[in-house]
Design goal:
The structure holds two protein chains of two kinds.
Chain A: E1 8-11, H1 15-27, E2 34-37, H2 40-47, E3 64-67, H3 76-85, E4 94-98, H4 103-111, E5 116-119, H5 124-141
Parallel strand pairs in A: 1-2, 1-3, 3-4, 4-5
Helix pairs in contact in A: 1-5, 2-3
Chain B: H1 5-38, H2 48-59, H3 66-85, H4 91-150, H5 152-168, H6 175-206, E1 211-214, H7 216-230, E2 236-240, E3 246-249, H8 250-267, E4 274-281, E5 286-293, H9 325-335, E6 340-345, E7 349-357
Parallel strand pairs in B: 2-4
Antiparallel strand pairs in B: 1-3, 4-5, 5-7, 6-7
The chains are: A alpha/beta, B alpha+beta.
């Protein structure tokens, strides 16, 4: 896949969760240009075109980042902090998609400037519904600066 | 989080100051005794009267007035002794009394110092225990976090992938295969509910409380309306008697009203006419509220089990539930310094009483 046409960057360490998320997006044809990375370190390398992704053009930013919080190496909160602190990347919409419903996480994410916080429902239908809704909203309805 | 540190420092400071005051007062008394022992002119000790009265008034608020008060007592005692004995109250007598008093004073001083030392020791122990409790609390918090996050992930996979099998292999599955997959999904749903309830319980016990005056009548009405919308409770009637305000944490009180009213709605389901009555009795410091229904009730024989965690008095097929709701109610009420108890009769309804502070 050519890295330069990426629309969604899915940052998720759990394979089954990633598969369920991609399946839900696929149903709405939103997963055509999706890249899945398995931890925060890889996500940062991808976005800033370093490490494993030096051949990528950095100015082609993803249109949406779906971010899990608890991940090995660099966790989601750290990724969010770095993305929102850098003026090259602070305009990418970041949606935290996590199992946690803890107030602490919600408050901290918003403090760091997250665009949306969605807690993954356990039930499959609700999960599919939630992922499709946020996919449709952020990919089709929402306007981000070019 | 509760801050323990400031409290500790404060109490240690108070103890040190108290020890200083006691030592100062008793040393002064000893000096007085020794001085008057050597003083040849007995009447000069009368000069101590205004001095000791000054000390009493100075230390009155700080609760160490006892030592200077004793000084006055000694002076009065010596005066009385010399008055009764007259000429027989010789210099030798006087000195004997003074020596005795000095010994008593020194004993008293040591006793007080020992007491403060023991208090300090206890304070130290308390500090250590508080630290242990804080550790345990942190561990519990980490545990709750892990429950909320890690247990949900595999559960979502079980539910999701059994659903995918149902969707993608629909033609290959016969009705028995679909039924079996249905059972898997039903049980993951139950486990999800259980995880949510455990989290609510842990939150009810560790969440910091913000006390305010709460309009209980409005809150009961809100909770009832909300429940009526979300559950099959169109034929439930609420009889709301006059309910006084209480003083507590709004979110937590709303949570317990939610649980109690949801229970009443659930357990009146088999009845044709479903009535929930909410009322209260004005107490001196606490109001006693009650929520009464005409549902299936329970046997008083098992009333002790009502508030136990995961305890249920009805079969899972009769009524849904995880057995956590009333445990949450009990924790919240206890955190407010109140009590909760239930009364019921099989098939004659149940009443739950709980007390909450007025101010």
């Amino acid at each position: 896949m050519a890295f330069n046409e990426i629309e969604v960057l899915l940052v998720e360490d759990n394979e089954t969760d990633a598969e369920l998320t991609m399946r839900a997006l696929k149903k709405n044809n939103l997963a055509n240009n999706l890249v899945w990375v398995k931890d925060g370190e890889e996500a940062l390398e991808f976005i800033f075109a370093t490490g494993r992704y030096t051949q990528r053009e950095m100015h082609e930013l993803p249109k949406l980042v779906l971010l899990d919080l608890r991940m090995p190496k660099v966790d989601g909160m750290e990724v969010l902090r770095i993305l929102k602190a850098d003026e090259r990347t602070n305009k990418i919409p970041v949606v935290v998609l996590t199992s946690s419903k803890e107030d602490k996480d919600i408050v901290e994410s918003y403090n760091l400037g997250v665009n949306s916080y969605v807690s993954k429902p356990v039930e499959f239908d609700e999960f599919t519904e939630a992922v499709s809704t946020l996919g449709l909203y952020w990919m089709l309805l929402n306007k981000s600066p070019e | 989080m509760i801050k323990y540190n400031s409290g500790e420092n404060l109490s240690t400071k108070v103890m040190d100051r108290q020890l200083f005051r006691i030592t100062a007062a008793i040393t002064l008394l000893c000096i007085f005794c020794i001085l008057s022992y050597y003083s040849t002119n007995r009447s000069s000790i009368n000069a101590f009267y205004p001095f000791s009265i000054l000390m009493v008034s100075f230390w009155w608020k700080k609760r160490t007035w006892l030592a200077p008060a004793l000084l006055i007592g000694i002076l009065v005692f010596i005066q009385a002794l010399s008055f009764i004995l007259g000429a027989a109250f010789t210099e030798a007598y006087y000195r004997l009394v003074m020596v005795m008093l000095t010994v008593i004073m020194v004993a008293f001083l040591f006793e007080r110092i020992e007491k403060v030392r023991i208090l300090n020791e206890m304070n130290e122990k308390l500090k250590k225990r508080t630290e242990n409790l804080e550790d345990a609390n942190n561990e519990l918090e980490a545990f709750a976090y892990s429950v909320s996050h890690d247990l949900r992930v595999p559960l979502r996979a079980i539910d999701g992938f059994s659903r995918i099998v149902m969707e993608d292999y629909e033609e290959k599955l016969d009705s028995e295969g679909k039924r079996l997959l249905g059972i898997i999904r039903e049980n993951t749903k139950k486990m999800g509910q259980l995880i949510d309830d455990i989290l609510l319980l842990s939150r009810a016990s560790r969440q910091e409380m913000k006390f305010t005056q709460i309009d209980m009548e409005a809150l009961v009405r809100n909770v009832f309306q909300e429940q009526k919308l979300s559950s099959e409770a169109q034929n439930v009637h609420l009889v709301l008697k006059s309910v006084p305000n209480c003083y507590g944490d709004r979110a937590l009180i709303q949570q317990i009203l939610n649980n109690l009213i949801a229970n009443s709605i659930k357990f009146t389901a088999p009845k044709e006419e479903r009535i929930i009555e909410v009322g209260a009795e004005n107490g001196k410091n606490m109001n006693i509220y009650y929520i009464k229904d005409n549902g299936v009730g329970f046997d008083m024989k098992y009333s002790e089990k009502l508030f136990g965690l995961f305890q249920r008095l009805h079969g899972a097929t009769e009524f849904e539930g995880t057995g956590v709701g009333l445990s949450i109610v009990q924790r919240v009420i206890r955190r407010h310094g109140g009590a909760v108890w239930g009364e019921g009769k099989l098939n004659k309804g149940a009443t739950f009483y709980f007390s909450l502070p007025k101010t």
